Amino acid sequence: MTLRSDVAELLAQAAILDVDVEHAMTDGHVRSAAYQRVVLVTAASHSRERDRAIVATILRDPDEMASKTAVVALVDRIAMKAPGPAEFRQWSAGLLPELDRLRTQAFREFIRRRIDDWHFRLSIEDGHLPTPGELAQVTDWMQRVLAERSTSPVVLALLAESGSTKKIRNIAKNRAGSREPRTR
Predict the structure, then answer these.
(1) What would the mean pLDDT of 153-171 be, rounded to a whole number?
(2) From the centroid of its chain, how far is CA 163?
(3) Residue 163 contacts residue 172 (beta carbons within 8 Å)
């Protein structure tokens, strides 16, 4: 397969008809934006059956930054709508072999870390109470996401105490304080 046929096939499968494939071949920004649109359509689908093939196709693009960015966007969108950690783990396990298509090890590791971060968050949402050691294993990005969005007083207290940066600790401390019952 060629890059041109890959892009044309992705756009056709996503029913995106307003992207000029020839322009996408000569302009990486147009191609990257097209991948983002394909990701939006893919993530909105109720079926997860084609996700691995779509990721494999995107990862064949020689512009690894654009393909990594698109795959991360898909991981984020699927994780946000995942019913739980087990379902997300099963879905992401299907993608992991495709990551070997990336020549840049840092990009492969970035996607793997993002998957691990989301599994951690979904586990917390499913009732898991993390330890400081487990918290230390997730990225600063995920710690910040948890500090900004978690509704668990236990998780906020852990982040306020053990967050990896002062900003994360302060966000968690402020949010934990605002959740405490007020006395008159």
Answers:
(1) 97
(2) 21
(3) yes
**Tokens describing residue 16:** 């995106």
What are the φ/ψ torsions at residue 92 (nearest 5 degrees)? -70, -30
Distance CA 101, CA 19 (A): 25
48 has pLDDT over 90: yes
Segment 78-87, tens digit of pLDDT: 999 999 999 9
Q: Which residues contact 96 (CB under 8 A, 6 or more apart)?
A: 112, 115
Question: pTM for the full model?
Answer: 0.92
* H or E, element range at 6: helix 3-13
Instruction: Name which of 34, 46, 99 is nearest 68 in CA terms.
Output: 99
Q: How far is the C-alpha of 92 from the C-alpha of 60, rounded, in Å?
A: 18
